[in-house]
Design brief:
This protein has about 170 residues and is mostly helical. The protein is built from seven helices and no strands.
């Protein structure tokens, strides 16, 4: 099973995490911000203007966050490198797509770790089956990730993880 890129690459994204999610000042964010609103610290090049000082500025939530490669996948694959700054009408579509693709990428990260475990063949087969279902072939829109097959696999990952817990290192 070949997994998509599951490591964030902010240089290939349009700052989607700095838009898509609301910030609450009391929850590890230095300000209050609504969803689908650019963070005031987002620079014109889609980079964080306070990145080196995030923790000191009260943005622990940003320090801990990883899109698992979903941001660049949305920007580069689903929107062909276009950005919401080039076309403001794309903003809500791009942030929606991030909110759909991110849980898929997070589940793929878990399955990638599971695939590295010494699992019995039936568990290996189930892991590969779930991973394949979470990877639509040549996705061209967010709808490819909203297909029943993808969403059913996403919903099945937690139960699968519970079932392989005895095979995790340190478990007896």
């Amino acid at each position: 099973m070949t997994f998509p890129e599951l490591t964030e690459d902010c240089s290939r994204c349009a700052g989607l995490c700095c838009l898509a999610y609301p910030f609450e000042a009391h929850e590890d964010f230095g300000l209050l911000k609504a969803a689908d609103t650019p963070c005031p610290n987002l620079a014109p090049d889609f980079r964080c203007s306070i990145h080196t000082d995030l923790a000191k500025c009260g943005f622990g939530g940003c320090v801990a966050y990883s899109c698992a490669g979903a941001g660049q996948r949305v920007t580069q694959e689903l929107f062909d490198g276009e950005t919401w700054r080039d076309d403001p009408d794309l903003l809500s579509h791009m942030t929606y797509a991030l909110r759909v693709v991110l849980p898929v990428h997070e589940a793929l990260l878990v399955l990638q770790e599971a695939a590295a475990l010494p699992l019995p063949q039936d568990f290996q087969d189930r892991c590969a089956e779930l991973a394949r279902a979470l990877c639509p072939v040549d996705p061209s829109s967010v709808w490819d990730f909203e297909e029943d097959t993808v969403q059913e696999a996403l919903a099945a990952v937690p139960e699968f993880v519970e079932s392989i817990a005895p095979f995790a290192p340190g478990q007896a």
